[in-house]
Write a structure and sequence with these properties.
The chain is of the alpha+beta class and 630 residues long. It has 16 helices and 23 strands. It is 42% helix and 25% strand.
Length: 630
């Protein structure tokens, strides 16, 4: 039995090797052979190849027909004495026709596919197909000379090919001594056994061997510079550069016409504007409301006598309702207040975890409308629209350039549209973050805003560099540099495009004056304010918290006689404003963690063209490709 298994293994190994090595064995699996392949190419002075292929397919199994696929995109390296130049070509195929057979054409993965045959009819034996098409190669993009470098037979056929003949007609005289042929698998640099002759600008010949599956035939002919007069490619680089400059100029003009702010008054203010809560003050400065701004309302209510705070543990606090909010309190305050207590007189912060997330989000949405109606706006409607238009223009510019580059890569409008949309969105994320960092500049502490700005700039540079590197690989580097600069400019100017209303200027100026006072207030002034209002330190603390200057604020009261607040209990020991600020900061951090915790929900699981070539080897030229049966 062991000998039988050993003999079977040897026999199986032998059969596998035989299948891999023998042409006939490999070809048999394709289900057909090509017994004759005649190529006629008339090359125009515009470097357009008018190709006719007469293919005789011998079907061993019932087949509807054959298909041809021809690469549209080609990457080549041209080597000279001085350097190596990498060039990308995007060619075009049209005027496809097939004699006596129905056919269909489509683009697949950067290849023009010609599918020939009747889906309702099967063929066996020999069938002759005449396929014609025009292949426009365009400008050769090199200055050393012109050339013909074309795959007469591509290296991606899956069957053996015999009876290969060709006729190539050139538009003008040429030097026949520079004519060479290569055959074999992709990359084979050996001379092909071709018998050919030249007469009246015509090259005719035959290949004196049968090509195995995966082998091809390539023709190379060196020509003097200027032999072809191909129309240049559409100047996308110039279009991108012009569009970038035009958008930058338009944004600058719109800024000068509609976005310039009047001088901002900054009077010294000892208190915030009447009726403006710390959450609103943060919104007026930055144009947005974050979780920290909402949480500051808890300290604000405590300073107003609505609640008290009791420390019950190292990381837990009890909120006690002393009285209900008044009728003239903002709706967003009522939303959060009622969510916290929910009919209770007191509640532990730990009990709020994952229970009021939706209400916190609702509060963040309720504050902006207070400053968006007629007569209430902080910024003019037109300037806000112009700012958004600037950002949209930047995104559109990136997307359009990516679409062109990706279409040249995939030759699929749908694929290019999807990838360019997503790519532009990702590239604009740090640009958007950069604009937000600038718009919130006055609402953040110096360290935090510097970190945000630095992170946004680094992210922008990294992604724009990746974008430029990709565009370089597609031969569009210069245009991408102008686009990158325009995108950064548009992202920044979109912030300064916003023009404040008179009300917006007055409110922002007063709040910035108030914030500046908190940072630079002198001891004598604070003593007078504390004498007039003994709870002054605590009334201002929630504003200092959202402005990011609470520690500075507390340090200024270290040498002043400040009594502990009546609304905070649970702390024992020597009292100082700085230590109390630390306690409050920790309590707010705990509240922030609990009040903004997102409810946990169940989650469902999920599972998870062209060619590169160069001068002088089989399969390295334009055209070719391959085919098969269907």
């Amino acid at each position: 039995m062991k000998k039988l298994f050993r003999l079977s293994g040897i026999l199986l190994t032998f059969l596998i090797c035989l299948t891999c090595l023998l042409p006939g064995a490999r070809a048999a699996y394709a289900g057909y052979d090509i017994t004759a392949y005649d190529i006629i190419i008339n090359i125009g002075e515009d470097n357009v190849y008018h190709v006719t292929e007469t293919i005789t397919a011998d079907f061993h199994v019932p087949s509807r027909g054959i298909y041809r696929y021809i690469p549209l995109r080609q990457e080549m390296e041209w080597k000279t004495e001085d350097n190596t130049k990498r060039v990308i070509y995007n060619t075009k195929i049209d005027s496809v026709s097939v004699q006596d057979f129905p056919f269909d054409t489509y683009i697949d993965n950067g290849n023009m596919v010609i599918k020939v045959g009747d889906p309702n009819k099967f063929n066996t034996g020999k069938v002759v197909y005449d396929i014609s098409y025009d292949h426009a190669l365009g400008d050769d993009k090199i200055d050393e000379g012109d050339f013909v470098y074309y795959n007469l037979i591509g290296t991606y056929w899956d069957c053996s090919i015999s009876g290969i003949s060709f006729t190539v007609t050139m538009p003008k005289d040429f030097d026949g001594d520079s004519l060479r042929f290569f055959s074999g698998a992709f990359g084979s640099a050996g001379n092909a056994p071709v018998e050919y002759s030249t007469s009246d600008n015509m090259i005719t010949g035959e290949l004196a061997k049968t090509l195995r599956p995966g082998e091809g035939l390539t023709m190379q002919l060196d020509l003097p510079e200027g032999y072809f007069d191909a129309p240049p490619e559409f100047p996308w680089q110039a279009v991108f550069i012009a569009a970038s400059l035009a958008l930058v100029l338009a944004a600058l003009i719109l800024f000068l016409l509609f976005g310039r702010d009047r001088a901002l008054p900054r009077p010294v203010e000892f208190y915030p504007p009447d009726g403006v809560t710390p959450a609103e003050a943060a919104y007026i400065i930055s144009g947005s409301v974050d979780d920290k701004d909402v949480v500051s309302l808890v300290i604000y209510w405590a300073s107003k006598g609505f609640i008290s705070i009791e420390q019950t543990g190292k990381n837990d606090f009890k909120l006690v309702k002393l009285k209900d909010l008044t009728d003239n309190t903002h709706e967003y305050e009522k939303t959060l207040f009622f969510a916290i207590f929910n009919g209770r007189e007191s509640v532990l912060i730990s009990k709020l975890r994952e229970n009021i997330y939706n209400e916190v989000e609702s509060v963040k949405l309720q504050i902006p409308p207070l400053y968006s109606g007629k007569g209430k706006r902080l910024y003019t409607s037109l300037s806000l629209y112009m700012g958004k238009l600037s950002l949209f223009s930047a995104w559109l510019l990136v997307m359009a350039s990516l679409f062109i580059a990706l279409y040249r890569l995939f030759y699929s409008a749908q694929t290019a549209l999807i990838y360019s949309f997503v790519g532009a969105f990702i590239i604009m994320l740090p640009i958007r973050s950069l604009s937000q960092s600038l718009s919130k500049w006055h609402g953040k502490g110096r360290g935090k805003r510097t970190a945000l700005l630095t992170g946004s700039l680094i992210g922008s540079v990294v992604l724009l560099s990746a974008y430029a590197a990709f565009m370089y690989s597609q031969g569009l580097f210069l245009g991408s540099i102008f686009i990158s600069g325009a995108v950064l400019f548009l992202g920044i100017i979109s912030v300064y495009m916003r023009k404040r209303t008179k009300r917006g200027s007055d409110l922002l100026g007063r709040i910035l004056g108030f914030k500046n006072f908190l940072e630079v207030a002198e001891k004598e002034r604070l003593e007078l304010l504390s004498q007039d209002n003994p709870s002054y330190f605590y009334d201002i603390l929630p504003y200092a918290y959202v402005f990011g200057v609470s520690e500075k604020w507390a340090k200024k009261f270290e040498e002043l006689a400040v009594r502990p607040p009546s609304w905070y209990t649970g702390y024992s020991g020597a009292f100082t404003p700085l230590l109390f600020n630390l306690l409050i900061f920790n309590s707010l951090a705990t509240m922030h963690s609990a009040m903004t915790a997102r409810p946990v929900t169940a989650r469902s699981g999920f599972g998870g063209g062209g060619g590169f070539g160069g001068m002088g080897f089989s399969g390295g030229g334009f055209g070719g490709g391959g085919g098969g049966r269907w």
